[in-house]
Design a protein that fits this description.
This protein is an alpha/beta fold. Among the domains are: about 90 residues, Phosphorylase Kinase, domain 1, CATH 3.30.200; about 140 residues, Transferase(Phosphotransferase) domain 1 (Transferase(Phosphotransferase), domain 1, Orthogonal Bundle). An eight-stranded parallel β-sheet has the order 1-2-3-4-5-6-7-8. It has a six-stranded mixed β-sheet with strand order 9-13-14-12-11-10, covered by helices on one side. α4 runs antiparallel to α7. The protein is globular, with a radius of gyration of 23 Å. The two termini are about 40 Å apart.
Length: about 450
């Protein structure tokens, strides 16, 4: 399906002229204030519709006529109520209303078929209990709203794997949520939990020391540049991440920065040099060691089809040694984070860089959250949730391993299966995982 999605924008004029007849996917951004009814000419063929970045506030009552529509995006519009008619669109699989002004979600608006729902950056105060009917739901994005609690019926969504509830007004994580069998990626920073964390702050650096060069990458929370740092007569190359300053799909940039600082030093973490305040632009950033060019991304973020699972280039393949090194490095990082009361929340191959020797660098703390290590119940579940994510990483590593038969890989597969158990008590903790990996040998 996703290969059919057109990248280029289309226009209402093209619709009116019949140039889009039979189209499977349409993307229109023209400051529309009214739904273009000409789209109904495509009611039998349209599978993907993106009307983001317009000025829409409602959908027609007969929107359900799009019988084949699987994916609908309407982010950056002016909706104040989630359209109830979407509950009558039987084929809908993915819906996105990021950055609107939605306050209300009608009980009948959430179709049970939904697998991926994006409501980041709205004004939602409560989810309807009917969300528990969405048994297929795997990915639920709710960061940046005004939620004070979650409906207990959400526990019925047993396939839920990724949940973003950061930057809300929730006061505690309910045990039924922590015990959900398939939850693997959870972000909850920036809520109203009673927490008091102290950690050594990072060095504050003078922004005048830095000369930003080429763009290295951009994520939900910020933009990363290569930069020259002048320190006396010495000039060194570093990487500078400038935060965008707004709530992201994962949470607040301040929480990301604090988690990165609190994570401390580790051979597999991208080294943190300090933080910097770009006063003129009224933006803040962090300064990191520049990663050498021999490192490359292990995976790519999930696609619309894979939903919660990373995707990998057809040409990638790792040796057994590389697989074992990555597995050991990532277990060691996770062990250190949880010893400090931090859940990373985004333990994925696409956040991992490796080189030909299997050396590993891990980063991106955008979804990281602090938790109270003195709360035994919360600590137990949050670690086992991250262990589930680690199990998926092991599954990915084994799937791209060029060698298929060896005693160590057999043991790694057994470890993967334990990590992916639906029973939290059957999953090992990271201390045990690190110990088991150290004992692996052929």
């Amino acid at each position: 399906m996703q290969n059919k999605i057109l990248i280029n924008l289309q226009t209402v004029s093209q619709l009116q002229k019949g140039e889009l007849k039979g189209a499977v996917s349409v993307k229109i951004s023209e400051n529309l204030t009214e739904f273009p009814v000409e789209l109904f000419e495509l009611e039998d063929t349209l599978e993907y519709l993106d009307l983001s970045s317009n000025k829409l506030s409602n959908l027609p009552d007969d929107f359900y006529r799009f019988k084949s529509l699987r994916i609908f995006f309407a982010s950056d519009n002016l909706f104040t109520t989630y359209p109830e008619v979407l509950g009558r669109c039987d084929a809908l699989d993915i819906v996105g209303f990021k950055s609107n002004n939605i306050k209300v979600i009608p009980t009948s608006g959430l179709h049970p078929n939904l697998r991926w729902l994006i409501l980041t950056g709205n004004k939602i105060e409560a989810l309807p209990p009917s969300i528990g009917n969405c048994k297929r739901m795997q990915k639920l994005m709710l960061a940046g709203n005004q939620l004070t609690s979650l409906p207990e019926t959400l526990a019925n969504c047993s396939n839920l794997s990724l949940l973003r509830i950061a930057a809300n007004r929730i006061t505690e994580l309910p045990e039924w949520l922590l015990g959900m069998p398939n939850l693997a990626w959870l972000a909850f920073s920036g809520n109203h939990f009673k927490q008091d964390f102290t950690f050594a702050d990072a060095q504050e650096l003078n922004f005048e020391q830095f000369n930003l060069k080429e763009l290295l990458g951009e994520g939900a929370s910020g933009t990363i540049y290569k930069a020259e740092r002048s320190n006396g007569d010495a000039i060194t190359n570093v990487a500078v991440k400038i935060f965008k300053g707004n709530v992201t799909s994962d949470g607040y940039p301040d929480d990301e920065m604090n988690a990165y600082i609190a994570a401390g030093s580790h051979p597999a973490l991208v080294g943190l040099v300090g933080k910097v305040n770009f006063s003129k632009e009224k933006k803040r950033g962090i300064v990191m060691n520049l990663i050498t060019e021999d490192f490359f991304n292990l995976g790519a973020p999930p696609s619309l089809e894979s939903c919660t699972r990373d995707i990998f280039n057809n040409g990638i393949g790792l040796s057994k040694l590389q697989v074992l090194k990555v597995a050991s490095s990532m277990a060691s990082v996770a062990q250190q984070l949880h010893a400090r009361g931090i859940i990373h929340g985004d333990l994925y191959a696409h956040n991992i860089l490796i080189n030909e020797n299997g050396e590993t660098l891990f980063g991106d703390f955008g979804a990281a959250s602090f938790y109270d290590k003195n709360n035994a119940v919360v600590s137990f579940y949050l670690e086992k949730i991250e262990v589930k994510a680690y199990g998926y990483l092991l599954d990915d590593l084994l799937s791209i391993c060029l060698e298929k038969e060896s005693p160590s890989l057999v043991e790694l597969a057994k470890l993967r299966d334990l990590c992916l158990s639906s029973q939290h008590a059957e999953r090992p903790g990271f201390d045990e995982i690190v110990e088991n990996l150290a004992a692996l040998s052929d």
